[in-house]
Design goal:
The strands form five sheets. An eight-stranded mixed beta sheet has the order 14-24-23-15-16-22-17-21. It has helices spanning 43-52, 124-133, 177-181, 203-210, 218-233, 237-245, 256-270, 275-299, 303-306, 323-330, 349-360, 394-404, 436-443, 461-464, 509-522, 543-549; strands spanning 2-7, 13-18, 21-27, 62-66, 74-80, 83-89, 106-112, 115-122, 143-147, 155-159, 165-170, 311-316, 335-339, 386-391, 408-411, 425-430, 453-457, 465-466, 478-480, 497-498, 501-503, 526-531, 554-557, 560-564. The protein is an alpha+beta fold. 50% of the residues are buried. The chain has three domains: 2-129 and 346-360; 164-333, 2-Layer Sandwich (Nucleotidyltransferase, domain 5), CATH 3.30.420; 386-564, DHBP synthase, CATH 3.90.870.20. The protein is globular. The mean pLDDT is 97. A hairpin with a 5-residue loop joins strand 10 and strand 11.
Length: 567
C-alpha cells in the first residue's frame, strides 16, 4: 500500500509511506534553496518530488491532505496547469461533529495535471498526534500526547495500547503564537503595528535565544498572572467575551492575535522592568503554566484507561521546538519518558497525515522511519574559484578540523526531516575557540546572542553535559558541566546551557567517525553544529549552492573535499 501525505500550506511537504515504511518526506523549502516555511503553490511540485524518488501519481494508492484553519472545515488553494483550484479539507482540530481524530474530516478530489485523484483529509492536529505517537518508542503502550501549535490552545490526548485516541481538551485558552507575539511588544523585534496574521514564523526561535539576556522578575509575574485571568481565563466579561470568540481553531480562521496584542499592551503599560526581563518572565510563566496544567490533567485522567503513573508523554506542535519547556516536562517525575519528534512543527504534517490515515485503517504498529529521509544531495559542478581537493574520509575531515580550527560545510546523504540540521546539512567547527560562536553567527547573519549547538558522541555526553542523556534531535536543554565550560566555550549559551545533539554510530556512522577522529586528535569530544543554508532559506541542496554562498572556505560532500582558491 502506497500512501502519499500532503501539507499544502506553510511548511509545505510531500511524504510517502509504502507498507508502513517512510520512503521520503520532503519539505519544499529544502528543494533548490527554497524560502523557509514555503507553501506548495503548484501541483507540479508534488509530481516533481514524487519523480525524484522514482514514483508517479498513478503509483499512489491513497492520497491524504492535512487539515487546516477553521472550526467546521478548512480550505486550501493550489495552482494546477495554470489555474487555481480551491477545495475543502478537514478543520484544524476536533469539533462537535468530528470527535474521533482518526476519522476523515473531509473527502474530495485533487487535480494533478490532467489526472484527478481522490483524497481524504484529517484534522490538522491528527497529523501532529500521529507523527509523534507512531514514531515514538511508546508504540503499543499507552501514552499521552500534548499538542500546542501556533493557532491551537494546548490540548491533551491519550493513545491507548490499541491505538485508540481519547480527548482531554484544552489546558488553557491561549494559542501558541502568543509566545512569539510577546516579541512584537518587547525587545529587538518590537513593532509599531500589530499584525493580524502570523507573517514571520522565525521570531519564536529567536526569542527562545534572546530570553537568556534577561532574568524572570517576580513583580512582572504577578502582573502576568492577573492579566492572564482578566484577558483569557477568568470569569469576568472580558475573558468570557474572548472565550466566546476564540476557540483555538487556527489563527487564520479567527481574530485570536487581536486579543493577544491587547494582553501585551496592558502588560507593557503595567510593568517597569527591562524588555529582556519581561520576555524572560513571559517565557517562564507560560512554561510553568503548561507544566502545571498538563500534570494536573494527567493525574486526573481515568486510571482504568491510562493506568498508574509514571506515564509516557509525547509533545508535538510548534511549541515543542521550545527546548526549555521540553526539558521542564521531562523533569517531571510523573512522566516515565518524554518524546519529541525531530519534526514537531508543521514540517512533520505531511508525514503525520499519512500516519493518521494508516492508523485509521487499523494499522497501529510503529512506522519504520529515519530522520535522514529528506532529499539527497543534488549532483552539481563547482563554480570558478573552487578546487576539488580529492577524496577525504570522515576521519581525515575530523583531523583537518583540529589542524585548521576553521569551519567546514558538510553535505552528505539525505537531508534531515524537520528544522534542525543534524550533521547532514551543517556547518561543523571546533568548539574550543570562544570566537567561533561569533564567527558562525556573523557568517550566517544572525544576532550575537544566538547559540550554536554542540554535537557529541552519545557515550561521552554524560561526562560533559547534565543530564547528558541521549538526545539525537537537538530538542532538549543541557547544562555544560563546570569543568568543560572553558574548554568548549563556542557552544555555551549565555545562560550556561546547550542544545545538545548526541550521535550514535549505528544511526550516523559518518558523523560518528568524524567526531571520534576529532577527539583522538584534539582530546575534545565536542564540535559545533549549525545549519548550512542561505539566510531565510532551507538547507543547501548541493555543493554549488554552498560554494556560491562562499562564507566558508572548505566544503565536504559525500567523501570529497572542496576548497576555495586563495586569490
Amino acid at each position: 500500500m502506497i500512501t502519499c501525505g500532503l501539507k499544502l500550506t506553510h511548511d509545505g511537504a510531500v511524504a510517502l509511506l509504502e507498507d508502513g515504511r517512510l520512503v521520503f518526506s520532503v519539505e519544499v523549502e529544502k528543494v533548490a534553496n527554497g524560502i523557509r516555511y514555503s507553501e506548495i503553490e503548484d501541483t507540479k511540485t508534488i509530481v516533481e518530488i514524487l519523480a525524484a524518488f522514482g514514483y508517479k501519481p498513478g503509483d499512489v494508492d491513497e492520497w491524504v491532505v492535512d487539515g487546516w484553519d477553521g472550526h467546521e472545515h478548512g480550505s486550501v488553494r493550489i495552482v494546477n496547469d495554470g489555474r487555481e483550484q480551491e477545495f475543502v479539507v478537514a478543520p484544524y482540530r476536533e469539533n462537535d461533529t468530528i470527535t474521533n481524530l482518526l476519522e476523515p474530516g473531509a473527502r474530495g478530489t485533487l487535480a494533478l495535471g490532467a489526472t484527478e485523484v481522490p483524497f481524504v483529509s484529517y484534522v490538522h492536529v491528527a497529523g501532529h498526534l500521529a507523527s509523534a505517537y507512531w514514531t515514538s518508542p511508546f508504540v503499543g503502550e499507552p501514552a499521552f500526547v500534548l499538542i500546542w501549535d501556533g493557532g491551537l490552545f494546548p490540548r491533551l490526548y491519550h493513545v491507548g495500547s490499541d491505538g485508540r485516541v481519547s480527548l482531554g481538551g484544552a489546558m488553557f485558552p491561549l494559542i501558541g503564537h502568543a509566545y512569539a507575539s510577546a516579541a512584537h511588544h518587547f525587545g529587538p523585534f518590537r513593532r509599531d503595528n500589530e499584525a493580524t496574521t502570523v507573517d514571520d514564523l522565525s521570531v519564536a526561535g529567536k526569542l527562545m535565544a534572546y530570553i537568556a539576556l534577561g532574568t524572570p522578575d517576580p513583580a512582572v509575574r504577578v502582573v502576568l498572572a492577573e492579566l492572564f485571568g482578566r484577558h483569557f481565563e477568568g470569569s469576568g466579561e472580558q475573558a468570557q467575551a474572548y472565550r466566546s470568540t476564540i476557540n483555538g481553531v487556527g489563527s487564520n480562521a479567527e481574530p485570536s492575535l487581536r486579543f493577544v496584542h491587547a494582553f501585551y499592551r496592558d502588560l507593557r503599560g503595567a510593568v517597569e522592568a527591562t524588555d529582556e526581563d519581561v520576555l524572560a518572565t513571559v517565557h517562564e510563566f507560560l512554561g510553568d503554566l503548561l507544566v502545571e496544567r498538563v500534570s494536573q490533567a494527567v493525574r486526573g485522567w481515568d486510571t482504568a484507561q491510562a493506568g498508574e503513573g509514571p506515564w509516557n508523554l509525547c509533545f508535538v506542535g510548534g511549541c515543542a521546538l521550545n527546548i526549555k519547556w521540553n526539558s521542564q516536562l521531562r523533569a517531571q517525575s510523573i512522566f516515565r519518558d518524554v518524546w519529541v519528534p525531530p519534526f514537531p512543527n508543521d514540517s512533520g504534517s505531511a508525514f503525520g497525515a499519512a500516519c493518521a490515515h494508516r492508523a485509521a485503517r487499523g494499522e497501529t504498529s510503529a512506522v519504520a522511519w529515519h530522520v535522514r529521509s529528506g532529499p539527497a544531495v543534488v549532483p552539481s559542478d563547482i563554480p570558478p574559484g573552487w578546487t576539488r581537493s580529492g577524496p577525504v574520509t570522515p576521519a581525515e575531515l575530523g583531523r583537518l578540523l583540529h589542524e585548521t580550527g576553521e569551519p567546514v560545510v558538510v553535505l552528505y546523504g539525505r537531508a534531515e526531516l524537520g528544522p534542525r540540521a543534524l550533521g547532514g546539512r551543517s556547518i561543523i567547527a571546533p568548539a574550543t575557540n570562544p570566537g567561533t560562536k561569533q564567527l558562525l553567527n556573523d557568517i550566517k547573519k544572525r544576532e550575537h546572542y544566538r547559540p550554536v549547538a554542540p554535537i557529541c558522541m552519545v557515550d561521552r555526553a554524560p561526562q560533559i553535559f547534565d543530564p547528558g542523556v541521549p538526545d539525537p534531535y537537538m530538542l532538549f536543554d543541557h547544562v555544560v558541566r563546570e569543568e568543560w565550560v572553558e574548554r568548549i566555550p563556542a557552544i555555551l549559551h549565555l545562560d550556561g546551557t546547550a542544545r545538545l545533539q548526541t550521535v550514535d554510530g549505528n544511526d550516523d556512522p559518518v558523523l560518528a567517525e568524524l567526531l571520534r577522529a576529532y577527539e583522538q586528535a584534539s582530546g575534545v569530544p565536542v564540535l559545533c553544529n549549525t545549519s548550512a543554508n542561505y539566510n531565510g532559506r532551507g538547507f543547501f541542496p548541493d555543493v554549488r549552492s554552498a560554494a556560491e554562498w562562499g562564507a566558508v572556505s572548505r566544503l565536504w560532500s559525500d567523501g570529497v573535499l572542496y576548497e576555495k582558491e586563495v586569490s
